[in-house]
Amino acid sequence: MITLHHLNNSRSQRIIWLLEELGVDYDIKRYERDSKTSLAPASLKAIHPLGKSPVITDGEQTIAESGLIIEYLIRNYGKERFLPEEGSAPYWQYLYWLHYAEGSLMPLMVMSLIFNKIKTAPMPFFIKPIARGIADKVMQSYVGPNVLNNLRYIEQHLGSTPWFAGEQMTGADFQLIFPLEAALNRGSSANDYPNISAWVKRVHALPTYQTALQKGGPYDYA
């Protein structure tokens, strides 16, 4: 049986949604972030050396990284769902957006989170102006403009298609739900990105997504 090692408020929430869509039997082993640092507990390192989530175990297999987990589950349990015909135009779109989510979009989202935390982090008073000045400069000159550019790119794409790889939901949609939920949750206006907002609402309305929320526990981005 599949076991998902699930960290609260993390990328692993989207894996619960996929497992619900696939209708497979699975267990959830829960891990809680440290209330002060928001870091994952050290116990996750017993499952995978990097101590990150999501991780799944399936028999003797231990698989980390959301994109690989999504590919593994779809190819082994999807019964031809969520995977376009290999070599077709939707197939290449699926692979592109699957890799884009963590390769291009998420690094910017993480940098944005880190630099915004720096501006409010406790530190000696004489260091605060310097740290905040550096954080503001990086946000204004690099991170902020690149986040906006990516969100506008996604907004334009979703104006011409209901799902990321075409008319049918694919693994790319499971991969992209977390960063786009985070983007809307962290201050990007739904009014500025109506297509992204509509896509997120479409996902949230799915019964499988609602079941995943119930099973996953508290999740700040839905």
Automatic annotation (TrEMBL):
Keywords: Transferase
Organism: Thalassolituus pacificus
Sequence similarity: Belongs to the GST superfamily.
Root EC class: transferase
Keyword Transmembrane helix: no
Domain of life: Bacteria
InterPro entries recorded: Glutathione-S-Trfase_C-like (IPR010987), Glutathione-S-Trfase_C_sf (IPR036282), Glutathione_S-Trfase (IPR040079), Glutathione_S-Trfase_N (IPR004045), GST_C (IPR004046), Thioredoxin-like_sf (IPR036249)
PANTHER family attached to this UniProt entry: GLUTATHIONE S-TRANSFERASE 1 (PTHR44051:SF9), GLUTATHIONE S-TRANSFERASE-RELATED (PTHR44051)
Annotated protein name in UniProt: glutathione transferase
Domain GST C-terminal: 87-222
EC number of the protein: 2.5.1.18
